[in-house]
Fold:
Amino acid sequence: MTGLSRRSLLVAGLGALGLAACGNPPRAYPADSRPLDDGGDEPAERGPITSVAMVGDSITQGSLEELQTAFTTAGITEARIDGDTGRRIEVGNGKGAGPLSGVRTLYGMLAEGVAPDAWVIELGTNDVGSYADAEAYGELIDLILDMLPEETPLVWVNTYREQYLDDTNVFNLVLQQRIDERDNAVVVDWFGAATAPDADILRSDNLHPNTKGQQVLAILVVEALQHL
Structure:
């Protein structure tokens, strides 16, 4: 991305937010997931990411302003961000007071012809604790992955929900496994950020990011996009 190194925005942002004492910054990984060319020696060149579409829940919704600012700073000129309180991956038809599911939201965006340089998904928080095992979480994650063009870079923000910590760990593990199997894709370690010692980036509910946390989330997402 024009004018920014891959880690400069992350390091500067975390330092300004007082998180440098937390040790190494939360990872957006793997270290390099770019596709190789036919020779297999050098990564294939790709133009800068200038457009992004993001689907998320209340964590995205509450961080909208910070995400937009971070995207603009990173040279992203088009950002379609759709976050909604209580959004789940598959459950939710948008009728009444309930949110439209991530699958339905994504379907609608694709039907509109939304075709960004990269997709960002921040879903799963409202699903952990509602499924029986890793296989069920894998099937849930696959619903989203199967909808997205494999050639389009993807960032998925993992989740932290203390109330269902065991299921959170299962979901994040399965998510990482799925992303490791996919080209042009990275996971943002929001769990690592939220649980870092003395981070203080969550509200009193220990779930939603506070003002500092919203900024950290935005920085981590941009850093992940720069890793693609």
The longest strand covers residues 51-56. The beta strands are 28-29, 51-56, 78-83, 118-122, 154-157, 185-188. The mean pLDDT is 85.
